[in-house]
Design goal:
It comes from Penstemon davidsonii. It is found in: Membrane. Belongs to the amino acid-polyamine-organocation (APC) superfamily. Cationic amino acid transporter (CAT) (TC 2.A.3.3) family. This protein is an all-alpha fold. Helix content is about 65%, strand content about 0%. A two-stranded antiparallel ribbon has the order 1-2. Helix 8 packs antiparallel against helix 16.
Length: about 575
Amino acid sequence: MERTHNSSFSSFKSYIHALSDTPNRLSRRACSVSTSVEETNRVRARSGPDMKRTLRWYDLICFGVGGMVGAGVFVTTGRASRLSAGPAVVVSYAIAGLCALLSAFCYTEFAVDMPVAGGAFSYIRVTFGEFLAFLTGANLIIDYVLSNAAVARGFTAYLGTALGLSTHTQLRFTIHGLPKGYNEMDVIAVVVVLLLTLVICYSTRESSLLNMVLTVLHILFIIFVIAVGFWKGEWNNFTKPENPKNEGGFFPFGVSGVFNGAAMVYLSYIGYDAVSTMAEEVRNPVKDIPIGVSGSVIIVTVLYCLMAASMSALLPYDMIDADAPFSGAFRDGTSSWRWVSNVIGVGASFGILTSLLVAMLGQARYMCVIGRSCVVPSWFARVHPSTSTPVNASAFLGIFTAAIALFTDLNILLNLVSIGTLFVFYMVANAVIYRRYVAIGTTNPWPTLSFLFCFSLTSVVFTLLWQFAPSGKPKAFMLGACVAIAIAVLQLFHFMVPQAQKPEFWGVPLMPWIPSISIFLNIFLLGSLDKPSYVRFGFFSGLTVLVYVLYSVHSSFDADEQGTLGQKSGESIMESVESEDHAQKV
C-alpha cells in the first residue's frame, strides 16, 4: 500500500484523475458515518496528545454564561419591547429561555455520550454522514469568524462609550483611499483578538479563569443596572404608555407580540453550543456537562428576565430607545444619572470580551475536529504537546478573525448570529431523534426520515403562514390546522416506531417531544430572519459544496483508503456492541 494521505494531490495528473472519479468518491464518502466509539478513540488520536481534562461544571457554567450574555442583550431588550412585546418582553425572555433549554438538552445528550471537541460537527457526522457534517461545520466556523470580527469592533465602540469618546474619530483611523465600510482601521479590535488568541493557545484552564473573572465583572455590572432600573423606575410603566393613543396594559401587542418578541430575543441565548465543544476537556462529562449547559441557560434566563423587568419599570414601552434602551434612558435623563450610561459601556465591554473568548475557544475546537476527519488539512487537528490545546486551529482562526476585524465594518448586531447557527441547531435536533430511533445497519431508517421530513414541512408551512398570511380567522384556522397535523404526526411516530437505542448516561427526556419542539422553534426562527441572511447562507453553502467536491471528498477518500478514518456507514453496528467499553473509557 504505497498510497499516501494526499495521494490525490501528489501531482497534477493525480488530481485530474481524482476529479474524474468524483461521482464514485461522493457515493462512497458523502453519506459515510463515524461512530461515537471511533470519535472518542481512533479519530481523536489523530490530534496526537490528548487535551487535558481540567474543566468542572462551574467552568462550563461560566463559559455558557460568558458566551451568551454579550453586549447585544442591551440592544435586544429594547428592540423587542418597543417593537414587539411591550412590558410583556419579560414573558418573551422566559419563553425563549425555555426554548433554549430544550435545544440545549439535545446538545447535552450527544456531549455526554460522545465527549469530543467537535460539537455539532461530530454529532451530525455520526448520524447523517460526512457531507452534511462538513456543510454545517463549515457554515458554523464562517459564522463564528464573521461574528467574532464584528464583536471585536464592537468592543472599540463600547470602550469609547465608557470613556466618553467618539470612536470614529479617536479610537479608529480612516484611510480615505479605501471604499466606505472598509476604510476605518480598528487596531484595538486586532489587539484584543490576538491577545485572546494567545490566551486560548496557552491553556484552556487559564482561559477558563480569565473567563470567570470577566464574567463575574460583567454580571456585577448587569446587576447594578437592574438595581438602578428598579430603584429609579415606576411600576405604572408596566401598564401605562407615555402616549395615551398607544395600546396600554401589560400585553399591548397581544399574545402574538409576545411570541414575536420571543423569536427576537432567542438569539441572545445563542452561545451555549460552544460549551459542548469543551466536552473533551471536562473531568466528568456525565455529571459536569448536564449541569454546566442547563445551569448556564437557567442563570441567563433569570438575568434576562430581570433586565427586561428593570427596563420596563424604567420607561413606558413607547419611550424606550430601541437601539440603546438603558444607556439612552439614563443619558436623556437628569445629569445626575448620566454617568450610568458610561457604566453600561464598561459592563458591555466586559460582556464583549467574555463572548469573544468563548466563541474563539469554540471555533478552534470545531476546526480541530473537522481536521481529524480529513475534510480539511489534518494540520488543523494537531494538539500541542506542551499546552494540550489545538494551537494550529486557534492561531489560524485568530489571525484570520483579526485581519477581518481590522478593516471590515460588518453590519452585524452583536446579539445576532447568522442563519448558519440556527441551521446547525435544527440539524442537531433532527440528529438526536434519528440516533435514538435508528441503529445503522439493523434498523430501517425510512420511518424516522419520513417523520422528520413531514414534521419539518409542517413547521415550514406554519412559519410561512405566521409571517405572510393576513390577520384574521382564516389565518388562525390554518395555523391551528398546522399545529393539529404536527401533533398528529408526532403522536403517530411515537406510538408506531420504537426507539432502537437509549443513552446509557443521560438522555433528552420526553422523547421525541422535546427535540421535535426544538425543530419547530428553529424553523420558526429561521423564518424571522431577513433576506441578506439567506443570501449569505446560500453563498457560503455553495462555496462549502465547491470545496467539498474539489478537495474534501478526495482528502477523506485518501485517508479512508489508507485506513486512518475507521468505520464506514455499514459498520456502525459495532457501536452498540462496544458501548460498554465506551462507558468505561468515559
